[in-house]
Write a sequence for this structure.
């Protein structure tokens, strides 16, 4: 209940409700999330008309100098339940480089997104953009053998010991070498080339 109250999570009888934030961290409406929506043939996340989903929760709301970046608002809720100070990107294709300066106050970041191609691509983009802002970033693959969208929420659902899981994730992240500025620059160039169709020149 503490995590749900802290993050403003509620319900409307059918769906879980979450605040929808704009780029300035202001609440602009209410998101409505349906767990297991795909199996029910319904849309997973509904946003009010005219509301664009931003980072959840806003980076400025995170206490301390460490942040975890995950994929999706539900994953952010799961991470907070584990005591990990997380911000959720609203989808694998939703990251905007303009969000990166909002993370400069953090000295350390762990990027732990979904285990699939779109998620891993998102992770590389986020890690590169934050590294170029001077943040020490570790890009954590939750399970390198999986490609089914496995995320921190799935890890939470499968455990009966949240303290041990949080400690495991932190230790696993520490085993990852931080991204270098050279790696970040190469990733940025690759993303630019994939967007524009222009060749990479280094």
């Amino acid at each position: 209940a503490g995590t749900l109250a802290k993050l403003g999570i509620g319900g409307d009888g059918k769906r879980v409700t979450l605040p929808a934030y704009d780029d300035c961290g202001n609440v602009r409406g209410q998101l409505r999330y349906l767990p297991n929506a795909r199996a029910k043939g319904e849309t997973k996340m509904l946003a009010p008309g005219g509301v664009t989903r931003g980072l959840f929760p806003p980076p400025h709301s995170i206490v301390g100098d460490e942040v975890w970046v995950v994929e999706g608002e539900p994953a952010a809720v799961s991470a907070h339940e584990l005591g990990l100070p997380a911000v959720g990107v609203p989808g694998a294709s939703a990251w905007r480089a303009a969000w990166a300066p909002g993370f400069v106050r953090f000295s350390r970041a762990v990027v732990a997104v979904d285990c699939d191609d779109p998620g891993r691509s998102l992770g590389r983009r986020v890690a590169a953009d934050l590294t170029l802002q001077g943040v020490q970033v570790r890009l954590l693959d939750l399970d390198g053998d999986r490609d089914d969208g496995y995320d921190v929420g799935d890890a939470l659902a499968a455990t009966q010991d949240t303290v041990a899981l949080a400690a495991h994730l932190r230790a696993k992240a520490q085993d990852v070498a931080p991204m270098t500025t050279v790696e970040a620059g190469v990733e940025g160039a690759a993303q630019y080339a994939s967007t524009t169709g222009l060749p990479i020149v280094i």
The chain has a mean pLDDT of 93.
